[in-house]
Amino acid sequence: MRIAVIDEGRCEPKKCQDLCMNVCPRNKLDEECIKIDGCAIIDEQLCVGCGICVNRCPFGAIKIVNTPEKIGSLIHRYGENKFALYNFPVPKKGNIIGLVGRNGIGKSTAIKVLAGELKPNLDDLPTIIRVFLKGDRTLSYKPQVLSPVNVDELDKSIVKELNITKKDNYSGGELQILNIALCLSKEADLYLLDEPSSYLDVISRMKVMNLLKSRLKDKEVIVVEHDLALLDYIADEVYLLYGSPGVYGVVSTLYPSLRGINSYLNGYLPAENVRLRREKITFDLSMQENLKIDKLISFTNIEKKQGDFRLRVKRGDIYKKEILGVIGPNAIGKTTFMELLANKIKADKGKIDKVSISYKPQYLHPDYSGLVEDIIPKTSSFRDQISYPLHLETLYKKRVDELSGGELQTLAIALCLSKEADLYLLDEPSAFLDIEHRLQLVKILQRIIENKDATAIIVDHDLHLLSQISNRILFFTGKPSKSGEAEIIPTYEALNNFLRNFNITFRRDPETGRFKANKFGSQLDIEQKNIKEFLSLD
Ligand code: ADP
Ligand code: ADP
Ligand code: MG
């Protein structure tokens, strides 16, 4: 079996004069494998998967993928030659279930089917789904795409716990919190949360996850999440989605969260006998201050007032070939400090050496309607070191203003790293990226910093990413929007401080090196707290 997907928006048969139809070997034998009706239509039964039309299409509008023999039940197809979802995540009372998988693999599609937003358009649905869809459970759904929320409709205790205030304009993170609060304010049997940690800073993520855990104890809960440390912290069990992004996705059987996440990282799902990728993903902690040789810049104690906000940074040095992670909530002065480093604003007190900066901002607003291939460097080093590992080629023929959040992020990272600079600054590069892209990001960045003798500062909220990539951490504390204090400290100390503030302990999984949360009150939890080792490295 094979699945063919045509991107209608990009298929332009008039411009290419029906090229795919003319090159198809089946069509040449007078069979109607490809026909044109406004856009190309491919008969999946007749198609032999030769790949000629895929390669020849000048717009990159065709994808054809062979599917494994045993794939499960087709649940939903968005239409002829559109994305197909196989199998179905079944919720369980009293369990928080995670959905894990690459961008475009069908997580939101699965959630929308559960939420009743998407009616499976097939006649012969498996019994389990018909039974599920006929059930009379009530549900509460937080979609991936956020909408405005009226604060008056929210549960008062949730408003208080999440420090929600009424105002005119909300940032992305605040809007996410409002949408989550609305979902939790509703009384329901089934709660569905699609990517609740997007836009949230590291502190808000922890708060939200704690709230989910405490409020939804006896409920059915399904959560889509790319942050593995968070996922392990909240999920009892996980469904892993595999397949081919944009073409088809299959929901695995249910795995206990520990085994499921490890199988995902190992790249092999034992119950399905499916290989996800060739190499295993493991987490080596960088956590070493080994590079203090060549100084890039020094700064004295810094003070800066911006409106009502006051920033103070303790004196420090940043080195060449160093990657400095940044941990802190939003509105604590991270960007202000970057602008000080970039010499865009002047400190009220203190001095900073000047350097050249290449900057990827937190929020990306593309207004360019041209193609990705028009704005990327044409050098071989860009192609080999940046584009190839990030799978950027698949985006070359797409319009920049039509990219998805994850695609746009990938492009912005690639462009930032392609520029010559002493200091690369990436503000929340992991936002919207799936797990494989986060790991590629770590590898590329480390290689570039090493090769170019440069330095990077990475603001991020994914604890795995930060601990893997950071030689040291610029640790921010204070009162968001009022005052922030920052200091460069060892990575371990920063992570330990962070976990201590939430009274949560982590240990490392011996197989993959990833963080695992200890159950609250378990023996390990108590032992680690006794010796103040909130992150155990054993
Ligand atoms: P995920 O949440 O895992 O990132 P989605 O479930 O949102 O993935 O999307 C899976 C695939 O389905 C994507 O390739 C997307 O382009 C496609 N898709 C989503 N909605 C539609 C639609 N209304 N019509 C056609 N294709 C769609
Ligand atoms: P972060 O990057 O940690 O999210 P910022 O450095 O962007 O935080 O902002 C810290 C605080 O300073 C915020 O409350 C912000 O509103 C305020 N602020 C930043 N720039 C200005 C400015 N030019 N005028 C007034 N207030 C500002
Ligand atoms: Mg999604």
Give a brief outline of the structure:
The protein is α/β, with parallel strands linked by helices.
Structural overview:
The chain has 538 residues and is an alpha/beta fold. It folds into four domains: 2-66, 2-Layer Sandwich (Alpha-Beta Plaits), CATH 3.30.70.20; 74-275, 3-Layer(aba) Sandwich (Rossmann fold), CATH 3.40.50.300; 295-490, P-loop containing nucleotide triphosphate hydrolases (Rossmann fold, 3-Layer(aba) Sandwich); 503-538, no CATH class. An eight-stranded mixed beta sheet has the order 5-6-12-11-7-10-9-8, with helices on both faces. The protein has an eight-stranded mixed beta sheet with strand order 16-17-24-23-19-22-21-20, sandwiched between helices. A two-stranded antiparallel sheet has the order 1-4. It is globular. One adenosine-5'-diphosphate binds at residues 306-307, 309, 330-336, 481.
